[in-house]
Amino acid sequence: MILPIVAYGTPVLRTVAKNITPDYPNLEKLVADMWETLYASSGVGLAAPQVNKDIRLFLVDSEQLFANQEDDEKGKYPDEPGFKKVFINAKIIETNGLPWDYNEGCLSIPKIREDISRPESVTIEYDDENFNHHIDTFNGITARIIQHEYDHIEGKLFIDYLKPFRKKLLQGKLTDITKGKVKVDYKMAFPK
Predict the structure, then answer these.
(1) What burial class does residue 40 get, using C-beta atoms within 10 Å of its C-beta: 0-12 exposed, 13-18 middle, 19+ buried?
(2) 5-184 in CATH: which number?
(3) Which residues are annotated as a binding site for Fe cation?
C-alpha cells in the first residue's frame, strides 16, 4: 500500500524517533509499504517519520540512481552499483573524508533542491529488517543518502544545513508546502 508522505511543517519531521523491538506491530507490512511508497514517489531513501511514524527506521536504495545515470557519470562514485537496505535503530558511529557538495532534495520538501555538504563516508550501526545487527561503512552517494535519511530519524531536515540567508529566501516556498500549495505526483499529507 502506498502511504502518504508528510509535508514540511508536520511535527513528526522534527521529532527524534524512538528505537523499536522485533515485536513492533506490523513491521513487515510497514517496511513493504515504505518500499512501495519510495518507488511510487521516485525516491532513493525514505524514513519512517516521512510516513508519520516516529520510529528509527529508514530505507535506502542507491542502486536505482546508478542504473539510471548517464554514460559520462559512470565510474564517478566509489559506491557503484549502489546499495539497497533497511536500517532499524540506526546510530552513526563516525563520518570521515572531505565534505562534498551535492544537490539534495526531499520528498517531504518537494520542489526545493539545494547543494548540501556532507562527509564522503559514514560508519553506522543498525539492525536490518530481520533484526540482524550490522556495523558497516558506506561512501559516495550511498553515504549521502544514509546521512540524509538518518537526519530524518533525528528530527533534522536537509534545509537545516543552509545558511540563514538562503533559508530565508526559501521561506515563501516552505510556507506554500506547509499550506498544501504544491503539486506533486505522489501521495502527500499536509499539516493540519
Answers:
(1) middle
(2) 3.90.45.10
(3) 106, 148, 152
